[in-house]
Amino acid sequence: MKSDLICLGAIAGSFGVKGEVRLKSFCADPASIGDYGPLITEDGTRSFTVKVTRPVAGGFAARLGGIASKEQADAMRGTRLYAPRDALPALPDDEFYHADLIGLEVVDTGGAALGHVRAVMNHGSGDLLELFQPGRSSTILLPFTREAVPTVDLAQGRIVADPPEGLL
């Protein structure tokens, strides 16, 4: 069962001396991270309004509700911020939230198991699915393109892949 929370960003530390944080956004429009209402911590114990103040190297400077000092901002380092799934917009049929892909079984076009999605990465040239295969010491990076991944079936919890020649 997928979580009802989607990670939208992470706090990289403080920014300046007046309580701002350096915020890394995982949103398609990174500056929109504050538009999804109050964001909560993974355990649900804290909630913050987010006001992006300006872009900075590696993300944004932002003010979090209830954080007023550099020390409080420093204490937030590493905290991930989440929004309820229903606060996010619905996606077209051919787009997916990364959180929905993680954990899915991956099979080839013949139905043979290739592994499970461990992570979704993007290093600048497109998304990659990191596949974990039991019994292997390393993972495989599968391009998340229509050619390599013709079918994503969230209802069945699986991905059908046609890996490029030589990948496996």
User: Mind telling me the C-alpha Rg?
Assistant: 18 Å
Q: State the low-pLDDT regions, or none.
A: none
* Count of distinct structural domains: 2
The helix/strand class is: mainly beta
The CATH level-2 architecture of the largest domain is identified as Beta Barrel
In CATH, the topology of the largest domain is named: Elongation Factor Tu (Ef-tu), domain 3
The CATH superfamily title of the largest domain: RimM
Number of strands: 13
The arrangement of helices and strands along the chain is EEEEEEHEHEEEEEE
CATH class of the largest domain: Mainly Beta
Can you give keywords for this protein?
single chain; 168 residues; mainly beta; Elongation Factor Tu (Ef-tu), domain 3; SH3 type barrels; 2 domains; six-stranded mixed β-sheet; five-stranded antiparallel β-sheet; 13 strands; 6% helix
Quick synopsis:
With 168 residues, the protein is mainly β. Helix content is 6%, strand content 42%.
Task: Summarize the structure in words.
The chain is mainly beta. It has 2 helices and 13 strands. The protein has helices spanning 70-75, 98-101, and strands at residues 5-15, 20-25, 39-40, 47-48, 50-56, 59-64, 80-84, 105-108, 113-122, 127-132, 140-143, 151-153, 158-161. The strands form 3 sheets. The chain has a 6-stranded mixed sheet. Strands 5-6-2-1-7 form a 5-stranded antiparallel sheet. A two-stranded antiparallel sheet has the order 3-4. The longest helix is centred in the middle third of the chain and has 6 residues, at 70-75. The two termini are 29 Å apart. The model has no long low-confidence stretch (mean pLDDT 91).
